[in-house]
Every structure is written in C-alpha cells, then in structure tokens.
Amino acid sequence: MNIRVPLYKVHMPPADELMPALQKTLYSGQIGEGAKVSEFEKQFSQWLGVESVVACSSGTAALHLALVLAGIGQGDEEVSTAMTAEPTNMAIRHAGADIRFADINPMNGTIDAATVAPVITDRCRAIMAVDYAGIPVAIDGLRQLADSNGLVLIEDAAQALGAKWRGQAIGTQADFTIFSFQAIKHITTGDGGMLVLRNTDLLTRARKLRWFGLERGVDRSRVNAVDVGYKYNMNNISATMGLAQIPYFNTVINAHVQNGKFFDGAFRNQPHIRPAAWDQSAEPCYWVYSLLCDDREKIAARLSAAGIGWSYPHKRNDRHQIFSQYAAPLPNLDSYFESLIHLPCGWWVNEIDRQQIVEVILAR
Ligand SMILES: Cc1ncc(COP(=O)(O)O)c(C=O)c1O
C-alpha cells in the first residue's frame, strides 16, 4: 500500500542550519554531556517558562528519574492508566512499585479525579497522569486529589509538548512532568527526554542521579556517590539537534493544532463518528488526531485505499503479560479503545491532504 500522507513524520531543521552545528559538535572532542546539553536545558526552560529541567537520554529515563526523586519504590503503589505507551508503566516497574489502573474519561482517554479516586489505596504514593495523544489531563481535580491524599503528581507529557491547561504550558503544574524527544514526537533529538521539576531544590540531586550518582565537574578520584545513580544523561549530539529544533517548536506545534482544530470542526455532529472531547481549560497539541468511530475497520480500510496513514491505539497496557497482575475492570476504556482510530494531523499534512482526509472519513 502506497502511503502518501503518513501518520508520523520526523521534523528536522533545514540542513544548512543543522549540519554545520552538528559537524562542529561531532568534531569538538566533547560529544558526551557538556555545554550543549546545558544550553539546550536553558533554552528549553525559557521556552516552557519553568526554572528546573533535566535533559535525559529518553522520556522513559526521565519518568524513572521522577519516580526515584519522588522516593517511590518497592511496596508502594502508583495509580496509572492502561491507555498509554508501555514506557509509562514500565518506568513504574523499574522503580519496583506496583500499579493501580484507573479507568479513563470516556470522552478523551485520559484519567481524571473521578476515575482515580476509587482506586487509591493506603499503599498509593503517586498518580501518573498521561496526556494521551496530546490531550491534557484535567489536572485541577488530580492536583486536589493528590494533595488531599498526600500523593505525588507525575505528568507523562511525552505526547504533549506545547499543550496547555488554563493557558499555562503543560509542565508547569504537576510535581514532575516529562517530555519525550523520541523519533516520532512533535520534536525529536534522535532520542531524548526532559524532566521538569516543580521543586527546584531537587535539581542538584536529579542531575547527580542522571549520571551514576556523581557530581559532574568534581575530580573523579574525589567525588563520592551516596545514591544509586543511572546513565540517563542526554549527550551533546542530541542537544545540538534540540537547539537547532527550538526555533521551530512553535511552528511545528501550531501546525498540528491548526490541523487538529480543522478536523474537530469537520467531524463534530456527524453520524457514526465523534472527535475526542475535553474540558474547556484544555488546549491539546494534537500529536495525532483521535477519532471515535462506530465502525473503525471500515474507516481504516478507506484511509488505506486513499494512501492515508492511520493507526489503532497502542496495545492497552493491562493486556500485556507483565502488567496483567494489575488488571481491573475498566469499562470506559473498553469502549473507548475499541472505537479509537488515530489520524495524521502533523505539520506535514497540508490543506489539500486534510480536506481529503475529511472526505474519506465522511464518505458514505
Ligand atoms: C506516553 C508515553 N510515555 C513515555 C514515552 C517514552 O518516551 P521515550 O521513547 O522518549 O523513552 C512515550 C514514547 O515512546 C510515550 O508515548
């Protein structure tokens, strides 16, 4: 099948901007974590409007680091969702904690206060909220629930760079937020992630944990590791790509948003389909478009025939053997999952493409 409009496409800055910068880094003799990583952190934190960020080798590394910094480990439970990519829940297992799957809001696939509250136990220490497909979780309710139960709120915003809640960037509200710069996200650095810390006092420890528990810049024969640390640092090569991408962040994200809004308008009030819907405080960044259909197989076949990429969602995580011990009734997820199809809405989808997508979906 010849796919003309793919579901994902890697955004790269123009070669005449990126390649000289990359060449300089590659032959600088300093390709590990160094000045480029610090500069990327500085520019990213300015763009997001936060103080403390820690650039990591992946979003998964950033998630695990968040859990370690939150002091979550064996014997603890964390409320999470099965409606996500596997790394969300793998990171909880990396920390040694157990999972309590909450059901989702049937309008948009994210967990919320109403679905999380019933699954909180005495062992729960944290809530892992995922901005699925770039749709922000309703964080006000989750924040209240977390505060009233003494829980840490971690936001997995791997798919939600540039999304907002009450006009504030995602990344400014949870105790810990992570982003991913993996190959098919809005913005890539090859692979990479960013951890955003609400408590800036944790920054020094976070930086040490990211690099074997060692303080960088201190003589390796004198430095003293007091914690189990990890090899989770971003390197200068990825950071150089990230720095070249920063001037394009807003343009890329805005293109996803414009296409997403176009689809929202076209698919609203149509028979047999409905766009995902959200609280009016949420401003999604439309990583991929989420459409709910009475008969998604028919729509998938039509899209394929027209050369348009699509996908069903990730395998629901409670159906993996490794997470099956945490399976629980999730009736909202059952129906959402079976009717969901993802459509391309990124920067590469032009006005003609998006019109064609609408015609293919609405064809009778
Ligand atoms: C929801 C979600 N969480 C976490 C991750 C992990 O990010 P990374 O691939 O950068 O480790 C991803 C992406 O793969 C994701 O989609």
Q: Mind sketching the topology for me?
A:
Layout (H helix, E strand, L loop, with lengths): L14 H12 L8 H14 L3 E5 L2 H11 L7 E4 L5 H9 L3 E4 L11 H4 L7 E7 L8 H11 L2 E5 L7 E2 L2 E2 L6 E5 L12 E5 L5 H8 L25 H10 L3 H19 L5 E3 L6 E2 L5 E5 L2 H10 L25 H9 E4 L7 H12 L2
Parallel strand pairs: 2-3, 2-4, 4-5, 5-8
Antiparallel strand pairs: 1-9, 6-7, 6-11, 8-9, 10-12, 12-13
Helix pairs in contact: 1-8, 2-8, 3-4, 9-12
Pyridoxal-5'-phosphate (PLP) binds next to helix 3 and helix 4.
Explain this structure.
The chain is α/β, with parallel strands linked by helices and 364 residues long. The strands form three sheets. The chain has a seven-stranded mixed sheet with strand order 1-9-8-5-4-2-3, sandwiched between helices. Helices cover 35% and strands 15% of the residues. α1 runs antiparallel to α8 and α9 (249-267) runs parallel beside α12. Bound molecules: pyridoxal-5'-phosphate. Residues 58-60, 84-85, 87-88, 130, 156, 158-159, 180, 182, 193 line the site of pyridoxal-5'-phosphate. Pyridoxal-5'-phosphate (PLP) binds next to α3 and α4.
